[in-house]
Amino acid sequence: MLDFIKDNMWLILFIAWGLPLTHYRSKFRKIVYQTDSWLINIKPLFLKELKGLFGNIFPENLEYRKFRNFYRFYLGIYLVLFLLYLYFTKE
Questions:
Q1: For residue 19, what are the domain limits?
Q2: Local structure of residue 45 (DSSP, 8 states)
Q3: Does residue 47 sit within a domain?
Q4: Domain annotation covers residue 57
Q5: DSSP assignment, residue 43?
Q6: Are 71 and 54 in contact (CB under 8 A)?
Q7: Kind and range of the H or E element at 38?
Q8: Would you say residue 29 lies in a domain?
Q9: How far out from the chain centre does Cα 62 lie?
């Protein structure tokens, strides 16, 4: 069992960190597109979402700013995991 975990450590880390991504992305998209519809999860609208992530499209909305910063942090950790994976799995 320990060999399996050791051999698949990166896969386990990416799955564990990635599971809540759909929930966080859905919540962020609902804030950015100002809707409560579940259909926002399957629509390929990216431009406003990217503007909302890297900019400040609702400066007066405290919920948006707090969640945007949290989402940035979450995605930053995802990026660090990926970079560490690339670094440590180089052959």
A1: 9-88
A2: -
A3: yes
A4: yes
A5: S
A6: no
A7: none
A8: yes
A9: 20
